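Lecture notes, structural biology module. Today: joint structure prediction for complexes of two components.
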Amino acid sequence: MPLRLEAMPPQPLAERLDVASIHDDHAEFVWVSLQRLGVPTYDAEDLLQEVFIVVHQRLHSFDHSSRITTWLFGICLRVVSAYRRRAHRRREQSVAQVPEERTLDEASPEQAAVNRQAGERLRAALDLMDLGKRAIFVMFEIDGLSCDDIAEMLSVPIGTVYSRLHSARSDFDRALLRMRAMEASRLGVRRGART
Amino acid sequence: MIPPTRWRDDASTSPERRELLRGAVGSCPLPKDIRARSAARIDRLLVVPAAAGLLFWIKGVAAAGLCAIGVVAAVDGVPSLTRRLALGPEPVRSTADRHPAMPRTSIPTVESTSSATETAISGSDASGAQREAPVASALPAPTRDRTRHPRAEAPSAELGSGDSLAREAAMLEDARGMLERNPGRALEVLNRHATTFPTGTLSIERELIAVDALRRLGRVAEAQARGMALLGQARGSIYEERVKALLQTLTSP
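The predicted structure, tokenised, for the full assembly:
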């Protein structure tokens, strides 16, 4: 069942925010956003902390002109972007994924293997996408949020959500094409090595 | 504007997309333990500014203290340095420091030169601490007294006393140095001391060394006589035990 996050009502301008109350109200949102941006579970706790350190440092710059979730999502984007660059520098591969629990519809080990393989392909395709587009795509296609919810959460017009989703879908298709090309080239190399 | 349909529910979309998205696992909610840990870290984060403020306050106080010490040192040090440069080296202190083996209590203050021997001998409360008192504390210390300049105010008397004391000390130290190798020569030096300084400040020290020199020369009777005379002088003073021990070595075979 997709996780749905109810959008928070906008904060009154005069309301004074502090990092502890933001954490209480929005830690869940930050946590889920980090996952939507492709952070694996084993690193999500560290990045959650990083996000709130940035919140603590930058809270004075929040001018209430947008929703707090929009501001938090922007911070998540930057933190995850830096995380991806670090991971790229370390040449880390996301091979140590936490094994997913078997869902009820997995009737057999074969089905479980197929599902696992599909999950890995999906993750690989999403990793090839731009971060912002990936988030919109995951929110709509995987987490099942409505376009209205996304628009409210990101403080953007609904039309912008549609266009971003369209762009994200195109990006996803291109990512699938690239993956197919890479798989074909890998297979070609293997066949060449055998012959 | 028609809202888009999700690919996994759209029959017209490609099977590959549907297959990938149908098996996709959505984002999982934040576990309670991670939330609690994160909240605790946030609390600690909020303590940091207060701690940082305290740290900066301590650093400020330390810096102010160092500045104050620097100013005091500068104010105190510049006149002292100019005085030292004007005076040149301190002969008395340097002489005593050159001969650390010499018993330093035997050097009394210059102001009480005449009664120094009596004071040294009759001081019943003389202690080991007094024995170990540095020469600098017993001697006039012109650089320590910032209000008056001893050389400038009383140049002849104090300078002369200090010089004679230094010469006495040097002479006795020479005799002590020769005691083991050449006791006869040491005795000559001591006799010269007695002639030069008949009422010398260090006469008891001289007599002690003289008794030892006579013992080494084998003139035991002479040493005993001189020792007994010295014991009469040193009765009740810090020298009494030393004189007794020396006399005992004369009587023992």
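Point to remember: Residues 44 and 184 of chain A are 33 Å apart (CA to CA).
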